[in-house]
Design goal:
This protein has 474 residues and is an alpha+beta fold. Helices cover 34% and strands 20% of the residues. Strands 15-12-14-13-17-18-16 form a 7-stranded antiparallel β-sheet, sandwiched between helices. Strands 5-6-10-8-9 form a 5-stranded antiparallel β-sheet. A 4-stranded mixed β-sheet has the order 1-2-4-3. InterPro entries: FAD-bd_oxidored_4_C (IPR004113), FAD-bd_PCMH (IPR016166), FAD-bd_PCMH-like_sf (IPR036318), FAD-bd_PCMH_sub1 (IPR016167), FAD-bd_PCMH_sub2 (IPR016169), FAD-linked_Oxase-like_C (IPR016164), FAD-oxidored/transferase_4 (IPR051264), Oxid_FAD_bind_N (IPR006094).
């Protein structure tokens, strides 16, 4: 491989190839669960270099693992332990290419962070609504590769809905330029959707054109205690009936979340003297003034019977509420190792899922500590299970707990991955909860676009079915 590395270094120039200790930070995932060994870390500066390095890899038979901000929660951006895979980091491809305010679009390279795109949109008095806790570090390419969601999906949709066009380097090094800022284009297959959510297994996304929206002038935010998940769903529908599509975020938070925040994030002020069993964090946005919108939200809550809601009376109050919501993952990290689930069910099935999943998990693991929260507005819940053991050895129970949780999800016609992707964490689980025909079609697409299987190999789906078939476990 010396010739390969020599050619790669000549192609990418100074700082373009990292090996040894300089590459170590790229090889351990965010959860510190997966650690790989790479042949090298390649850091291209533009699409032509990506295309050239892909061709070089094809000539030498080298597999490629693409990586964005290394914020994957499913091991999707970590190389294996063979030391024969090339990790491609897009961090140097971080330009905002163009902002077309008249067309409400922005074009960005794959290595630009979500926060960079947001900032560039704000500078043009526009909104790029993708938003989650890791927005400052997650990159465009990774967010597209996992079809990331976040807190604003209720109103604006996930990354798939925000994307109008893509530029993609294919497995043979050819570049597909689909950078079109069109809302309507009915000229055959919409190819961009093959690559969104594919986790780099079908092609390497290098640029994207996103939708922008008018920048809301007013926001209103409130924490509302509810009797339970069914009451939360009823409140969502009540607010939408009263306020319409101005409801942009609607987050469900359980008592256990508040208890973890109080213990592990004491630097954050608690809004409740006694944590409620359940509450929702709701935000509405619109044109006009904050005061008028606050009055409208407060009145709607009163009309729906929630006179005791905590309404944010200043931007600082609202930021404090959101800081608590976004710190729940950090509180969990400080608590210890958990078995994480990123599920989605029909919104109407959320109460049934929470009840049935808790019964199932605690029947098999009576001491389980369940931390549930998430995006009620789109049916996506983060359902995390702690056991007494707070080290990585807890993962020996993961298959059994997954069967319990995913069994309930399947009964309710949900999905085992809503916004975090499949990676390696859920690859084999996917084979149990998708039909043989769906898996066959996925393999046909993978084989057609990457016949040698060199793009992020063994992520998302195996090219060969695992031994034992694909029937769902008992």
């Amino acid at each position: 491989m010396n010739d390969f590395l020599s050619d790669l270094s000549a192609l990418l120039g100074a700082g373009g190839v990292l090996t040894g200790q300089a590459s170590a930070g790229y090889l351990l995932d965010q959860r510190r669960r997966w650690q790989g060994v790479a042949l090298a870390v390649a850091r291209p500066r533009h699409t032509d270099e990506v295309a050239a390095l892909v061709k070089l890899c094809a000539a030498h038979g080298v597999s490629i693992v693409p990586q964005g901000g290394n914020t994957s929660l499913c091991g999707g951006a970590t190389p294996d332990a063979s030391g024969r895979q090339l990790l491609v980091s897009f961090e140097r491809m971080n330009r905002i290419v163009a902002v077309d305010a008249a067309n409400d679009t922005i074009t960005a390279e794959a290595g630009a962070t979500i926060a960079q795109v947001q900032q560039a949109a704000r500078a043009a008095n526009r909104l790029f609504p993708a938003e989650w806790a890791a927005s400052a570090s997650s990159q465009v390419g990774g967010a597209l590769a996992t079809n990331a969601g976040g807190v604003n999906v209720l109103h604006y949709g996930n990354m798939r809905e925000l994307t109008l066009g893509l530029e993609v380097v294919l497995a043979d090094g050819r570049v597909w330029n689909g950078l079109r800022g069109l809302r309507k284009d009915n000229t055959g297959y919409d190819l961009k959707h093959l690559f969104i959510g594919a986790e780099g297994t079908l092609g390497l996304i290098t640029q994207a054109v996103f939708r922008l929206y008018p920048q809301p002038a007013a926001h209103a935010t409130a924490l509302v205690n509810v009797a339970g998940p069914a009451a939360a769903v009823a409140l969502l529908r009540g607010l939408q009936a009263a306020i319409g599509d101005r409801v942009t975020s609607f987050e469900l938070i359980s008592r256990r979340c508040w208890e973890l925040l109080a213990r592990y994030c004491p630097e954050l002020p608690q809004p409740h003297a006694t944590p409620p069993a359940w509450c929702v964090l709701v935000e509405i946005s619109d044109a006009g003034a904050d005061a008028a919108l606050l009055e409208r939200l407060a009145q709607a809550l009163v009309d729906l019977g929630f006179e005791d809601a905590l309404v944010a009376h200043s931007p600082g109050d609202a930021q404090a509420f959101w800081a608590l919501r976004e710190s729940i993952p950090e509180a969990q990290r400080r608590r210890g190792v958990s078995i994480k689930h990123d599920i989605a069910v029909p919104i109407s099935a959320i109460p049934a899922f929470l009840e049935q999943a808790e019964q199932a998990v605690k029947s098999g693991f009576p001491g389980a500590d369940i931390v549930a929260f998430g995006h009620v507005g789109d049916g996506n819940l983060h359902y995390n299970v702690f056991l007494d053991d707070q080290t990585n050895s807890v993962y020996c129970h993961e298959p059994a707990i997954n069967r319990l949780v995913y069994g309930v999800v399947a009964q309710l016609e949900g999905t085992l991955s809503a916004e975090h992707g499949i990676g390696v964490l859920k690859r084999d689980e996917l084979a149990h909860y998708r039909s043989p025909l769906e898996l066959e079609l996925m393999r046909l697409i993978k084989t057609a676009l990457d016949p040698a299987g060199r793009l992020n190999p063994d992520k998302v789906i195996r090219l060969e079915p695992p031994a034992g078939g694909t029937a769902a476990p008992d």
